[in-house]
Design brief:
The chain is an alpha+beta fold and about 375 residues long. About 60% of the residues lie in helices and about 10% in strands. The longest helix is centred in the middle third of the chain and has 33 residues, at about 135-165. The termini are far apart.
Length: about 375
């Protein structure tokens, strides 16, 4: 369809995008050397440059101009700044939101970068209290992503409001418009949603896909490869990162963990020795399974109370405070009468893992059975405050 006669508002919007597509091409072309060492980033920028060129051709055909033409000159506008000012006058609110969106996205990339750096330098939110760099970056990344989502949801309503304010009545051919109902904002938001979903990085189907393991680590020595997809641990299906975290965490130092991985050549078994001592394992791992936070908070409160009491809580020469946070989680549930299957369901771990934890608790405390463990927990006041 030929744009004739050109509507000033639409013409200015299209010519703004011509200028932007040209700027994208120039900017990306200048960045190619910076990403030459990273194949995925290099491919992404090459695709972006090609995409901008195709977009530019499409816009120029719509405006009936050549890519080298200056559409602003055709519109009778002297220079880019004046053109942009005029477009801003026609769409002040949506233009302001566009500028805000650009700076918010820059902040998202900045904080996302900081988050990974903080994790690698042990200043991670998962390793330390609130206020660490990683914790700040995580929280503020999420807040800015939330704002970006709100802008994309609001922008369509704002443009419609600007058009309505100038008396430009909707005249599209959709069924809603046929009876005077404008649903353009809903339709535009749906288009954005489809694009976001399509652009999300593909996840591994039924498993967790791995990056290259850390050199010298147990995983590297066991033979894990980049691109391996972990589908099971000790026969338990892995369907999410939380499941993987839990399966590894529930093993003690010296345990052999059997991973089932999917590779191009088919499934393979990788056996890893769990080397980290319980005191070195960070219970505040990046992702907690559903419900874990509640029980973890309980066990930590108990640990704090026990450590304040010091040697007063010794039974057969072994302090209750020697139990790990995970073991205290199990003890608290057992003391309330939970059976192994119930504990397994509550903590989302296998029954075999619960049995192993119960045995470790009894051994550490020098007790004969669950009843004695429950009595000890009650005796030392662990139950009333939970």
């Amino acid at each position: 369809m030929i744009l004739n006669p050109p509507i000033e508002r639409l013409y200015f919007a299209l010519t703004e995008m011509v200028a932007l597509e040209k700027r994208i091409q120039r900017t990306v072309a200048g960045l190619r050397g910076d990403v030459s060492d990273h194949p995925a980033a290099r491919e992404l920028l090459a695709r972006l440059e090609e995409m901008a060129g195709a977009h530019l051709d499409t816009l120029c055909k719509r405006l009936q101009i050549a890519p080298d033409d200056d559409p602003k000159a055709r519109a009778g506008v002297d220079g880019s700044p004046a053109h942009s000012i005029r477009f801003g006058e026609l769409h002040p609110v949506s233009s302001a939101l566009g500028a805000a969106y650009s700076i918010v996205q820059e902040a998202v990339i900045g904080y996302s970068t900081i988050l990974i750096i903080a994790t690698r330098t042990a200043d991670s939110w998962a390793r330390a209290d609130e206020g660490t760099t990683g914790h700040i970056a995580r929280q503020q990344t999420q807040e800015y992503v939330g704002v970006a989502g709100q802008i994309t949801a609001l922008i369509h309503d704002v443009v419609i409001w600007e058009l309505d304010s100038d008396g430009l009545v909707c005249r599209c051919t959709c069924p809603g418009c046929s009876i005077g109902i404008c649903v353009g904002a809903y339709g535009s938001r749906a288009i954005l949603s489809e694009a976001w979903i399509a652009a999300r990085p593909p996840g591994a189907e039924h498993g967790v896909e791995l990056k290259p393991p850390r050199p010298g680590s147990a995983a590297a020595e066991a033979g894990f490869l980049k691109g391996d997809v972990i589908v099971a641990v000790d026969g338990e299906k892995i369907d999410a990162l939380t499941t993987l975290q839990r399966a590894i965490r529930d093993h003690d130092a010296g345990d052999l963990i059997e991973f089932t991985v999917r590779r191009k050549a088919g499934e393979a078994k990788v056996v890893v020795e769990h080397r980290r001592e319980g005191s070195d394992v960070n219970e505040d791992e990046c992702v907690l399974p559903a419900g874990q936070g509640f029980y973890l908070d309980q066990s930590r409160n108990v640990q704090r109370r026990l450590r304040k009491r010091g040697n007063a809580n010794r039974s057969n020469g072994v302090a209750l405070s020697s139990l790990s946070a995970r073991e205290l989680q199990v003890l608290l549930l057992v003391a309330q009468g939970a059976t192994n299957p119930i504990v397994a369901d509550e903590l989302e771990i296998s029954r075999a893992t619960v049995a192993r934890h119960v045995a470790a608790i009894l051994a550490k405390l020098g007790l004969a059975n669950r009843t004695e463990a429950a009595a000890l927990a009650s005796k030392h006041g662990l139950l009333p405050d939970i």
